[in-house]
Amino acid sequence: MRKRPVVAQMVKDTYLPRMFRVRQTFPRPKIDPDEIPALIETLLGREKFSSRVRPGMRIAITAGSRGIANAALTTKCLADFVKSRGAKPFIVPAMGSHGGATAEGQKAILTGYGITEEYCGCPVISSMEVKKIGVNEDGTDVYIDKNAAEADGIILGCRIKPHTSFRGPYESGMMKMMAIGLGKQYGAEICHEAGFQNMARNVPLFGRCILKNAPVLFALPTIENAYDETCRIEAVAAEDIEAQEPELLKFAFTMMPRILVDSCDVLVVDRIGKNFSGDGMDPNITGTFCTPYATGGINAQRVAVLDLSPETHGNAIGLGYSSATTQRVFDQLDLSSMYPNAITCTVLGGVRIPIVMESDKECVQVCVRTCTEIDKKNPRIVRIPDSLHIEHILLSEAYLDEIRGREDLEIESEPREWPFDADGNLW
Question: How far apart are CA 61 and CA 46, in angstroms?
Fold first, then answer.
C-alpha cells in the first residue's frame, strides 16, 4: 500500500465521537419463505393464469440483477408451475447492461443469487442478442432479448419499488423489467439516451409496445418491507399490468425504510454493492441521488464508503456520490464492470472515484474535517451497514438527547469508541 504521510498527518487529530447502537422500527407485514410456494401455486392456479401456459410451450422467465428477497425461490416456483402445466421453462437474465454487458457476466450474477439450472430445474439461457419486436408510439424500434422474443410465452419475475433516479407512475417494476431489463444493453441504452428527465415517459412507452408485440403472459411481482423481507406477491395478467402497477408502487413506497433522523454531518456506509441497490447504495435511504429528478433520504454533508460487498464483483457504481472511500475499495474496483452500466444509463457521476484514504478511520476523519459550519467537537455521525439493512444503525453522541423517548428508535447500547484495529480499520 502506498503511504500518504502528509494526508494522514492532516486528519490524524480529527475527533471522532463515541457511537451508540439504535434499533429502528418500521411496519413489518411479511410472508415467510416456507409460505411462498403454496401462495404462488394458489395465485397461478387461477384460470386466468393457468390457462395461458399449455403443454409443449417454451416459456421464458425473467430474472433481474437486484438482490431481491427470495428471488431464487420465486423463480424456482415459476419454473415448477410451468413444468406442472406440461410446458418447458427457461430463465433469461433481464438486467439491461449489468454484468459488464456480457452474457457470462449476467449469468454469473444470477448464480450469485442462487438462480441456477440445478436449483430451478431448468436452463438459464444468457445472451446479449436482441430482436426487434415492434415500434413504439414515438416511432422508435423496440428490441428485447432474442430468446424471450422467440419463446411461446414470457413470465415476468420482478420486484416493485421506488426508483433511485426518477419519479413517475412506473418506476422499478414490471414496465421497467420489460423496457430496460429485457431490452438488454441495446434496449437499456435506447431507453436511457433521452435522459432520466424523460424516463417516466419512456418506461411505459417501451413497456406498452412490448406488451402489444411480445408474448408476455403475466407477471409475478414481489414487494419487500423495510426489513428486506417479502411482504406481498401478486399475479398480474399482461393486459392488467399498465393499470395495476401504479397502485402497487404506491404500496411499495409505504414499505420503504429510511434513516429516522433527518440529517447528519457525515453518513458512514460500511459497504455498497449492486446487490443492495442498482446505485450501489439506495439514494432513497442515503440521499445520494445521481439526478435531480428524484429526492429523499437523509441530508448528509459528507458520505464515507468503507467497503464493497462480495456480491457486487468490483462494480462500485454509486461510489462517485460519496465524499471519501478507502484503499480497500479502490483495490477492488472492476472498471470493466462499472463503466458499461454508467455509459448505458448516460449518468457518469456514479463511477467517479472520490478521495481515497488508507484506512477506515482516515476515511471518516477526512469527511468530518472537511465539513463546514458544524460542531467539530460533537459531530453528528450516522453509520449504517448498507442501504438495504438499516434496522440496526449507529449514531454519534450528539443524537442522544434528541432521540431519547422516541417509540420508533430504541437505544440498544451505551456510547462506545470506534473499534479500530492498529491499522485504523474497523473489525
Answer: 19
Q: Closest Cα to residue 150, out of 94, 214, 100, 107? A: 214
Q: Could you tell me whether strands 216-224 and 230-233 are parallel, antiparallel, or unpaired per DSSP bridges?
A: antiparallel
Q: What is the pLDDT of residue 195?
A: 82
Name the one residue in this structure whose C-alpha cell is 429485457.
182
Q: Whole-prediction pTM value? A: 0.82
Residues 6+ apart with CB under 8 A from 373: none
Distance between CA 191 and CA 206 in Å, rounded? 8
The pairing of strands 88-93 and 130-135 is unpaired
pLDDT at 338 over 70: yes
Which stretches does DSSP call E strand in 255-364? Answer: 263-269, 299-305, 324-326, 355-357
**Cell, residue 25:** 422500527
Best CA proximity match to 109, nearest among 118, 120, 98: 98
DSSP string, 333-391: --HHHHHHHHHHHT--GGG---EEESSHHHHHHHHHHH--SS-TTS--EEEES-SS--S
